[in-house]
Amino acid sequence: MSRNLMKGFLSIFSAKVITSVVSIATLPLIVRVLGPGGYGDFAFLLSVFSVLMIFISSGVTGGVQKFVAEERDEPNWKASVIWFYFKLAVVLAAIGFLGLVTVTGSGAVERLFGPDFVLYFYLLAIFVIAAQFREFCNRTLLGLGLEQFSEPIRVLNKLLWISIGIGLAVFYDGGVAGFLLGNILGDTVAAILGLLVINRYVPLKTVFGSVASNLSERQLLTFNVLNVALVLLVMSLYHIDVIMIRMFLGNDETGYYKAALALAEYMWFVPIVLQSLLLHSTSSLWSSGEHERVSRMSARITRYTALLTIVMAIGIAVLADRFVPYYFGADFLPVVAPLIFLLPGALGFAIARPIYAISQGNGNLKPLIFATGGAALLNLVLNFILIPQYGIIGAAVATSIGYGSMFGLHVLSARYIGYDPLGDFRAVRIGATVLVSAPVIYLMDTVISSDLVALVVVPLLGGAFYFVAALGTGALSVDELLGILAALPSPFRKWSKTIEAWID
């Protein structure tokens, strides 16, 4: 990873760590405040909202991040791209807002979900506008390489919506509506701050009305349409199971299952960071013709992602029975079983994420659509078959298979595009690392009687043993470890020099 890429990674990674810590710390409080039923309704609303925003936002945000990052000879290229996507963002947000207001006003929402959901859906309509411009500004900043601004704004947004939502729920009996209002206010503040930063680097007075001579609106719109289809397929993997459980089983089961998903998805925070970074970073490499560099980078990043997420999956599986009741409360014991079934698929999806982003940066989205479409179809069919018969366990099995298929399908897609993300995967050595370390981590858990001690000691000692084993098997080389440490800020850089001197 180059120094510039590492700098962007650290900005996004730091923000992701903070937001993950905030999520981990506040999720039990949110669950307790809303209860299983309320949390199930909130999860259902966010799933519906996320599916809707695929059509409203995904083409805009993915496009502006990719194309504004490209280096073109046209002097006003970046301003022209921002102006094109800003206009598109306004139109699509207006359509989404009016569509939700019309459907809710017609009485359809009340008939389908009950009177409480009328207010919820009106709030979702406002949420559409706030979320559209928050994400537009965030992706523009990423495309401009301004991760040092986009990520603190993202953290502030997270803190605002959670604190406002909890405050309204606790002190004003705001419930689900309070958390929706918190999201709206947080996104509004983030959008305003994002626009102010963009104005410093690409003055908005030069953006409005700007059209570059080599700007092909047809090319941008084609990418948008294909990206919407692609994101729709990806997001169906996230949300179709939650929506089906709510329809087939009710809100309590939805709350249990969503809690299991939230824990499984903690494995994704490093892959999500890489995904956010690699879309615009590799777009510039692809456009410059540096295909060999892309291939080398993808092979190494895929292996690093696998090594990291595998140890996280082992830790979650070993500690789930201790952690879930301690974290969510005794009422959420049904979360443990679906969580275990979700882990294999979540692992496969985690490794696929950087591959997906690198392929997306190439701009040829058709292979990605076929690959993701296969996984989405498999996920849909299996959920439809298994949820009515086996409840949330069936949903977990179906989703795990769908998630896991993303890895194999996107490796095939990458090879079709022209690079091999498994060129340096070292599968046998990674497997040996798991065979050596997994029993030791399990044994650590069994010999510690205290839940709290186990939750602290097992991740630390187990993780250390795992990475020592990875060095021993050759899944990770000493030179690679030193290179990663050297690219990080102090004190990690100093550790690299100390280790290197000790080896010499």
UniProtKB/TrEMBL annotation:
Membrane topology recorded in Swiss-Prot or TrEMBL: Multi-pass membrane protein
Cellular localization per UniProt: Cell membrane
Keywords: Cell membrane, Membrane, Transmembrane, Transmembrane helix
Location, primary (coarse class): membrane
Transmembrane segments: 12-31, 43-64, 84-105, 117-134, 155-172, 220-240, 260-280, 301-320, 332-356, 368-386, 392-414, 426-444, 464-488
Domain of life the protein comes from: Archaea
Record's keyword annotation contains Transmembrane: yes
Any single Gene Ontology cellular-component annotation: plasma membrane
Pfam families membership: Polysacc_synt
Name this polypeptide is given: Polysaccharide biosynthesis protein
Source organism (scientific name): Haloferax profundi
